[in-house]
């Protein structure tokens, strides 16, 4: 594939036309059809075109893969390899991803409809995650306990064994990297179950992992449905850890599967309904409005940390919502292969209909539609930026995760009221505070029930800080050195010494 960066729609389209897809599962160093021969169609939601028929794995494939993963772990080629050597292999994988950056971005764009510019950012994020984590692993030390001289107490970190990563479709390769990079760096054998809606970049990653020299069985990819292969992996007695990103509903099921099987660790990154709080003393309302719009319309609103609840102090609410509506006007959906498109297509017809249903409910329940609301007249699944004002917590659109380009605006008069509104949610993934009052910023930040709080910005922070939620947004932490805690076990070695 050419290394020239395409600059416009025609060039990206030309590049897309040259792509070929790996459609088979990757089990024990070999690309294979599903054992029972089943396939699933993966569809480009911007055009309705079937891109490929991909292996649809089930319990039979899960059995093979978990066996290979366990054997690989026990052989120790990877699990007991020196961290510096694991680092070298993972950096090689990152280099291969960098060399195939455009192709990987195209696969995600074609598979799930996100704009190509956004997909390129995701691939850079995935590569950055792999590099950061690989670089960390040979710099983490164990501990020596403060014993008397008749004993030596060592606290060592060991890989868990077999880790299953189950990921969603909204950031296919980036969510994959957040899960597999720390798990592999720590020495585990990893089985990746990509979403049935976006398996193509995961299978290309499998090819690159083979090229990078990961030993057989250490990294495997099983495409297929959640209720078939996902469930079989989650119930497996061979699996030591489930690392999941996806909906709260499926997260709850995974905890049950762990309880029904072997009490495997379960780390969940689930849904959100994140509040973005704008106080009247915010220094630059134009910047805040631009951010508020991008916080919900980026990636078509199909973002776990979408700022889907905008809480605005009533004294500025009317003027502020005007600014948000103006900013939204420049964020219309378009051909995902066009670098000018801010939004792309909704991932599939189910999600498209679901979002339109929420828009209808918003109107029926009495919210004020300020912009959007009608899908584009197109064969693709395009929904424009939609803003509802006068939303209350009793309304469905004020409570439920829509996972689409729909913003719900609430008004408030006091800081206390803003906090009550913000925390009145089953979720607790992200939140933001816009103000110039440092005392207020700290007061509100500490009182928000949220895994992360952004102050005077709404952007995904970099790799140096953890990412994850509280309440029904889950319990896991991706990114940063803390992500390695999830994929390692602490072991005590207590030695008696002759003195
Ligand atoms: P989903 O829960 O439907 O699916 C996620 C994954 O779980 C898919 O691979 C799916 O096949 C699998 N799955 C489904 N049922 C399963 C079962 N019974 N057993 C095992 N696996 C099963 O979610 P989605 O629609 O793919 O993604 C959207 C959701 O993901 C949203 O709720 C969003 O908020 C959430 N999300 C969260 C984060 C985060 O970091 N908190 C990031 C991205 C997306």
UniProtKB/TrEMBL annotation:
The active site is at 269. Pfam families: Aldedh. InterPro entries: Ald_DH/histidinol_DH, Ald_DH_C, Ald_DH_CS_CYS, Ald_DH_CS_GLU, Ald_DH_N, Aldehyde_DH_dom. Keywords: Oxidoreductase. Residues 31-493 form the Aldehyde dehydrogenase domain. It is an enzyme of class 1 (oxidoreductase). Its EC number is 1.2.1.5. The keyword Oxidoreductase applies. GO terms for molecular function: aldehyde dehydrogenase [NAD(P)+] activity. Gene3D superfamilies: Aldehyde Dehydrogenase, Chain A, domain 1, Aldehyde Dehydrogenase, Chain A, domain 2. Belongs to the aldehyde dehydrogenase family. This is NADP/NAD-dependent aldehyde dehydrogenase PuuC. It comes from Vreelandella titanicae. The lineage of its organism: Bacteria, Pseudomonadati, Pseudomonadota, Gammaproteobacteria, Oceanospirillales.
